[in-house]
Amino acid sequence: MAQKSSRSTLTTDKTTLCEPPFESGQEPIQHCSYTPAADSLWLDFSVTDLNAIHHHLWMVGSIGNINTLHHQRVLLRDIIPSECSRLHLVWFDRTIYVKPLPEYLLNLKFYRDVVCNDVELYGLIVGFLRSYCYLIQFPVDLAIAQEIYLVPKDVTWHQWASFRQAVLIRTEASDVNKRFIYGELRLHRLDLIYRFTGRGLIYFTVHRAYETYFREYFTIFATAFGFLAVILTAMQVLVAINPIPKALVTVCFRFSIAVLVLTCVCFGYIGLIFLSLFLYNYIVTLFANG
After folding, report:
1. How far is CA 110 from the centre of its chain?
2. d(CA 269, CA 288)
3. What is the DSSP letter of 246?
4. Among residues 110, 141, 138, which one has the least CA distance to residue 125?
5. Is 147 within 8 Å of 69 (Cβ atoms)?
6. In 10 A of CB 242, how many CB atoms?
7. Distance between terminal CA atoms of the chain?
8. From CA 197, how far away is CA 139, in angstroms rounded?
9. 284 Cβ partners below 8 Å, 6+ apart?
10. How far apart are CA 88 and CA 67, in angstroms?
11. pTM, full prediction
């Protein structure tokens, strides 16, 4: 689902409103070949979708919970680079998405010329930068980051350690955009929040076919119904024994009815999701084809 961009007008006052997160001599990249404009930065780093559901994020992740890159490997996670800012530190199963760190964010002139004149943009950039300070805390983390093209390869550990220390000292959690108050976010719960708040069927999905999308639902339901089947079988054995207390018969009867209702609700839910996805894709296709 594409993210909608919305923001207040860029600050036009040229007076520096914020201090750079590091000082001269602490910048890993002293000469940057590319410096984007503020409007382009907003499109690259905006997290409007997550800010819109900020009051629900406590169900999705913990405050400040960001594992180092080497610990992501310990957890057997695949670290997938993604330039989509709304996927930064979003994870599911054995996969976590991380937005690469552009070289211009390691250059002091960039902050003085572009970032520090816009408080809103400053919160986004500093929040993103602080997330990297937690992702890369040891030389092995930097090696992993450079291996998968998250950080420029010419940055040394000495440069990064000095830079990281400066950023953490000169910035505070209160400086960042509210999305970055939370660390890693669980994708499945983001999907549920989107669904139950009426924002859409999904926040993001890797599935591009109905079969793979619904396979995970059937796996969960099959496991649950397997346990219920064992319980129902045990109840059937109990009911067959004479004499049996009337209260136990009533409990078994009501539980059986509840299982039947639950089965209908589950399959109805899957059917509703399928119908919604089909209609959504059909309408999008019609508009795309004019």
Report:
1. 27
2. 28
3. H
4. 110
5. no
6. 5
7. 20
8. 42
9. none
10. 13
11. 0.73
